[in-house]
């Protein structure tokens, strides 16, 4: 395992210390070393925004704490949910009396721990509502789309909700726009090679040379199918079809797009892929609003890419345009 | 070779098309498809700023074209210099009558082609001066430091010169601050695994499992030595020593720092490494001003990291604080 690490069991703690030192606007919560928060939070008269999840997806989730973005995140070990206590501490640390919105991705552990933490807050008189991202079209059929996992679509959710909260919106208004991004967002991943969890020390799945896994999950969950590695153009075509068909996007509609690397994919190739994705959308007469290409939600050192689309309207367009400043996204 | 690519021989063109589509402020020069420029350039009354070099280092060099950053770049094939004609076309496309500064990294091909292009411009009455980055301490001994290669230190040079040019400085003033960043900047790389040039299809060097190459170059040039893979803390100690000793940084001086991944290194590990680098600098009573951690100058899919330090003074501090907006860096 070729890694920059001291002890694999403390890689998350060491990363968090590094982030706290590198980013003066952030701090590790003194009561819980698995919560990273904006120093400025709680912000008076603003709904608190929290996310959380397993580590290994950097810059998610920590990297989206920032000005007019998230106020805090609960940080789990690599690929595993933070405990309920971490979500609870994150919620309590950012509540200014206006309630807290928890915006996270749909995984069993996160779901369970968020719900426990929400109940714990209720006992303290702090209202927490939540929205669960379910953008990964490969993780469950359309008929059971509420069972789908959340992947890079969270970036749109955090940006939109962060902007709305910064405008003084109520908790219900923040929850409404966050849920709207979930309803309007779809993602699909393609994996070209595996990733290695530091504490395990060997790849947690395998993709043969010359093959690709279409629809792979962010932790290596099996995709829709394994097939021969295609050209970027053909991969782009399949990825666009998967998300556009599922969201039922029609000609003349407008999308915002994220192409996120999964960790080990050269930036050069993300733009090669985006070039073909854009051509494919153009061929369908679909308009493109915002475009993000880079490492937005990763899976350790997995080689692969995710395509995320969000159907736009005037409200979402305006909220994406609002100034924001975080490690993972600046507008 | 597990890659998102159509034809390896056209990967650079495809990437450039993708970037042009994703970034509305940029355009491929109509006369030369290996030049990317800011649409707004040439900017009246401003010195034009150009860089260039081989591809495969994304977001360098293209990603530093932007508002108050570079005005254009000449784009070479993977790991090879752009031809003189590309530098010439880049220079001519951004000159507003105030001259052009070419700020590039020290490699034989780039040196030769920049100098030819400078002469070609002179024939047209356009003045171009240049500064050559030589930050890689491993590539030549201190006695012959003018022979050293340029690596991630270019980011500081482009940022500082971009800010200075945006303030209406003359060509000589821009050249002065760019040269100052070179004089004050040192870098060192550590490689944990090789990279693969798409048109070649197999790794262009090899690092054994359990080993690391200290001082590796950005194209896999042999480093100072191969040794057993150390802990992040020990690697950080060696990296800090290499650059701090070479620059003769003393206690109570102030540095700005870049920790750049080389392409395939998880972001998590870059922060683990930064945590130890910061501790090492603290132990030497060295102050830290700006910190950048991420993929700033890469080498395709190489697993490794570079540490860059720049000795700060009031002028450099003020120029690093000036607003800037590019794919690779936003302030």
Report on this structure:
2 copies of one chain form a homodimer. Chain A is 32% helix and 24% strand. The two termini of chain A are 36 Å apart. Chain A is built from 8 helices and 14 strands. In chain A, helix 2 packs across helix 3 and helix 6 crosses helix 7. In chain A, the strands form 3 sheets. Chain A has a 6-stranded mixed beta sheet, with helices on both faces. Chain A has 2 domains: 176 residues, Rossmann fold, CATH 3.40.50.10440; 136 residues, 2-Layer Sandwich (Hypothetical Protein Tm841, Chain: A,domain 3). The first copy, chain A, is an alpha/beta fold and 331 residues long. The mean pLDDT of chain A is 96. In chain A, a hairpin with a 6-residue loop joins strand 1 and strand 2. Chains A and B meet through helix 1, helix 6 and helix 7 of A and helix 1, helix 6 and helix 7 of B.
Structural class of chain A: alpha/beta
Please tell me the overall pLDDT of chain A: 96
Give the ordered list of helices and strands of chain A: HEEEEEHEHEHHEEEHEHEEHE
| Rg of chain A computed from alpha carbons, rounded to a whole number of angstroms | 19 Å
Content of β-strand of chain A: 15-25%
CATH superfamily (homologous) name of the largest domain in chain A: Dihydroxyacetone kinase, domain 1
> How many structural domains can be distinguished in the coordinates of chain A?
2
Fraction of residues in helix of chain A: 25-40%
Question: Biggest interface pair, residues each?
Answer: A-B, 55 and 55 residues
What is the overall number of helices of chain A? 8
InterPro entries (chains A, B): DhaK_dom (IPR004006), Dihydroxyacetone_Kinase (IPR050861)
Keywords (chains A, B): Kinase, Transferase
GO molecular function (chains A, B): glycerone kinase activity
GO cellular component, one term (chains A, B): cytosol
